[in-house]
Description:
Two copies of one chain form a homodimer.
Chain A lengths: L1 H9 L6 H12 L9 H13 L9 E8 L14 H11 L4 H9 L1 E9 L12 E4 L17 H20 L4 E7 L3 H13 L3 H4 L8 H18 L5 H8 L2 H15 L3 E3 L3 H13 L7 E2 L7 H10 L15 H19 L3 H4 L4 H11 L1
Parallel strand pairs in A: 1-2, 1-4, 2-3, 4-5, 5-6
Amino acid sequence: MSRLHESIRRVDPIGVGWRERAEARLGQLTKPVRSLGRLEEIAARLCAIQQTVTPRAMPRRIVVFAADHGVAEEGVSAYPSAVTAQMVGNFLHGGAAINALARAAGAEVCIVDTGVAGMIDASATTVAFVSRPVRGGTRNMTKGPAMSEDELRCALDIGLDVADDAARDGVAMIACGEMGIGNTTAASAMTAAFLDAPAGEVTGAGTGIDAETHARKIDVVRRALIANHPRRDPLAILRTVGGFEIAAIAGAYVGAAAHRIAIVGDGFVATAAALVAASLCPPFLDYWFAGHRSPEPGHALQLLFLRQQPLLEFGMRLGEGTGAALAMHVLAAAAAVMNEMATFDSAGVAGRGEAAAYMVGES
Amino acid sequence: MSRLHESIRRVDPIGVGWRERAEARLGQLTKPVRSLGRLEEIAARLCAIQQTVTPRAMPRRIVVFAADHGVAEEGVSAYPSAVTAQMVGNFLHGGAAINALARAAGAEVCIVDTGVAGMIDASATTVAFVSRPVRGGTRNMTKGPAMSEDELRCALDIGLDVADDAARDGVAMIACGEMGIGNTTAASAMTAAFLDAPAGEVTGAGTGIDAETHARKIDVVRRALIANHPRRDPLAILRTVGGFEIAAIAGAYVGAAAHRIAIVGDGFVATAAALVAASLCPPFLDYWFAGHRSPEPGHALQLLFLRQQPLLEFGMRLGEGTGAALAMHVLAAAAAVMNEMATFDSAGVAGRGEAAAYMVGES
Lengths: 363, 363
């Protein structure tokens, strides 16, 4: 994991200097002080990330990591594993929710096969595709570690490479989505381990399962944790009860932060990767914006653990990066405020000094 | 007000037919059922508004109505009335928050002078501008009605014309913003009258005032209501304690609903106009999406009164249509889902029927 640790060392806290410069500029813009509320905080953070008072908002990139999960054979999902490869085909042909929402957000989409079990139809693709399967799915975590040390390193490296590519392409903001039948089960086990929470509290309905399947899923999470007892070591948790796509996201998260790229968080599975990144590297959170909160019970607990307030809450529980895609627009709008608004001086509008004089005169 | 009442009669409840057709289509798209949460409800409502399952999201238009308020002479704002004309100049030259956020939202901006007191510099404008001042500001509502019957009709007609123009131009979604020093005082008085609430509960800090000015503002709202006692007659409230820009928004709201155009609500002042529209014409709310919730205490109460859940909550309290601009993206994303996603059949992805078979087989 030397490459990961090298990136971790390169993640700087964003510091107060640029944030204060951004706040000073926000105070000069033609609007009452702090009247754009949280949008101004986002703007200032974007400025500090990019070390400028005129942050870029383009290009935007959404990278969807796909992989299968051995644990799916326990019957924890409403869908069979075959759906992972089918949905990757759908991403590549532009017909999935993330394609529609990424286009609406003005973001490029890149799909990364990190370990899909089935055949992927990559003919006539309309989006970027990277095929780097670590293995045709993880091992069943109820019977031992989901992956080997070597496989974990491979998966993390995929994410680090994705971050390097984004930096090379000048990406201003990045989001990571995921697709993998069974991956909310992995995310539940990871969340239980990180938060030291009972399986029943962090295991939800995923893409939609009945009560019987839900009870089985909770049992599977419990058994995976007993079989692996990863304690609180972030990489041990990721390796034993995580997934290739979750590891790749963790790598991409740390790598993007090391490159000072703003990161938009997604749902429950992607946020399991944020638990890894934040535990290994606390300043990572300076670069990561919690995009939305899903109805998965574990997602709210993850965000509490990370002390992050989500930007949006629409009851979305699809993954793929869809929540992040919607939230990206908020960051873009914050950047627009910094770049496009006039100052009181330049617009010839009376500022608060004159207003104060007026108030004294009138009252 | 015959023109207003004619529009009111033309506002149809959106009905369940198209909503059900949209929901049926949403169920065929390549995602677990209802996994996009509230975004799917928004999509279905957009479909019902436009009577299609492939709703348009363009063009989008944000109309900012500006006017001055006689009550500003009571010293209720942090800014002098002169700022209204200066900010209109800023809108026209593209330097205000609404310009930046409208561009980010892919929306056209149109500025309408409905009664600004000062001189507007309309040279070298970068956005559409309509000059139709009813009068150089309303009268001081603490001393009598803010406007005459005739002035109210003129202001409503401006909004109805704006809606007609939007329909002619095929606008898919519209938002109304406002600018007018003193207009949160008018909105507070209107809200107190509609909700039968004490002035102190619906009167906030507006663009940012100190405690002394806030106390004076509450007193001004009280005195305006005592001087005018408009009871609960919507048009009497609008006329006696409203404003030209608020009346124009009420007209535009009703007119847009009559033309089946989706409407994105903004902050406290614009929502005062929604109180008028919804009281006169309950089906109006089928067309109006509560864009955001501002920290103005009266805004939360207005939304409760209207039984609407805001899309966003970022502590924005600027007006101008800025909250609506940010929320417009959510509607656009919902439309993209309907227009751009593949169905399970067309994408060759296993749907829930096969999934159910799989579950039975595995467990």
